[in-house]
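Researcher: Please translate sequence to structure tokens.
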Amino acid sequence: MATTQPAETGAPLEPVGVQGCPTCAALIESRQIARDVDDLAAVAHCNVQIGNHPHRRSTDWRKAAEQRVWGVAL
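Model: Translation complete:
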């Protein structure tokens, strides 16, 4: 499986945190510290954590509503 890389830097793309989220901000800071000390395993771990960190989207309520019939979850 190929990794998508930006043309300018050649570096692999990383997940981007949600602006204003304190958890994402802490993970991004930790990722930068890990990168500064050349701890690539910690960088990868932060990337996984940022990518898996849940955020509600404006369309989430629609999905939940479509899965219910007469107030009962399907």
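Researcher: Any highlights?
Model: Residues 19 and 47 are 16 Å apart (CA to CA).
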